[in-house]
């Protein structure tokens, strides 16, 4: 049974949503293990949502340790069809200053150690990922940000998010390289999440909260967690306002999304010949296609 159509993943600094009402914690188990924490089901202005703290509510998981598959599968189990990811990012471009918000439209993968598919073990699928973010959901998110006229915050629609492995921040050489590629922001979490969300046919968009200028900027020698968290705390209230306004807009009109049929032409294996165990494991993703 659907518990919530809208999911929210809170990143560094955003461990809960203060405006959530009728809150219930659910400990979801998935075929891919346990999520980062209990999922918090509740209502935001009468709309049901599911919230998850990506690194756990006490921030105990490194980016490389995140159970990405369990997190996305758990959202799917609760019936989530639209997923908003809030994330701290460093800026690679002068115009995106700390406290700004970016709604990226592309990713570059610099991770080395992430499992970012549900498939394998006898079932092969290749999803299209040319447009990794749901542009309709990103549009609603961008419009929500714009409508709030938040002081000190400039909205940047579009831009490329470099997803690095971490946990150490980049070297200057790396930071300059990413700038030369035209990338706008850098973080450590959103790419595997976006891939898995697409495989799970969930529309995904990122609310990127700029916390620092990474290490390329001549006026900022290096990036420190202190700087990042300080800025994110200043922005946490704004981020919650944006999410609340986005959910309000979604409750009036859930946009169509190509993500919702992402597996239609992606599965290469003849499912009637596929291993039963794998079909059972991926049941929630495959049920439409069996
Ligand atoms: C605390 S700075 C580095 C940390 O913050 C970002 O996390 P999230 O995307 O969950 O907000 C970044 O990706 C790193 O994991
Ligand atoms: N400069 C940076 N690099 C990678 N991840 C980040 N998260 C916040 N700031 C970051």
TrEMBL record:
GO biological process, one term: L-methionine salvage from methylthioadenosine
Similarity comment: family membership: Belongs to the PNP/MTAP phosphorylase family. MTAP subfamily.
Pathway note: Amino-acid biosynthesis; L-methionine biosynthesis via salvage pathway; S-methyl-5-thio-alpha-D-ribose 1-phosphate from S-methyl-5'-thioadenosine (phosphorylase route): step 1/1
Assembly notes: Homohexamer. Dimer of a homotrimer.
Gene Ontology CC terms: cytosol
The protein's role, per its UniProt record: Catalyzes the reversible phosphorylation of S-methyl-5'-thioadenosine (MTA) to adenine and 5-methylthioribose-1-phosphate. Involved in the breakdown of MTA, a major by-product of polyamine biosynthesis. Responsible for the first step in the methionine salvage pathway after MTA has been generated from S-adenosylmethionine. Has broad substrate specificity with 6-aminopurine nucleosides as preferred substrates.
Organism: Amazonocrinis nigriterrae CENA67
Gene it is expressed from: mtnP
Protein name: S-methyl-5'-thioadenosine phosphorylase
PROSITE patterns attached to this UniProt entry: PNP_MTAP_2
Matching HAMAP family: MTAP (MF_01963)
Keywords: Glycosyltransferase, Purine salvage, Transferase
CDD domains, per database record: MTAP_SsMTAPII_like_MTIP (cd09010)
Binding site for phosphate: 12, 54-55, 87-88, 189
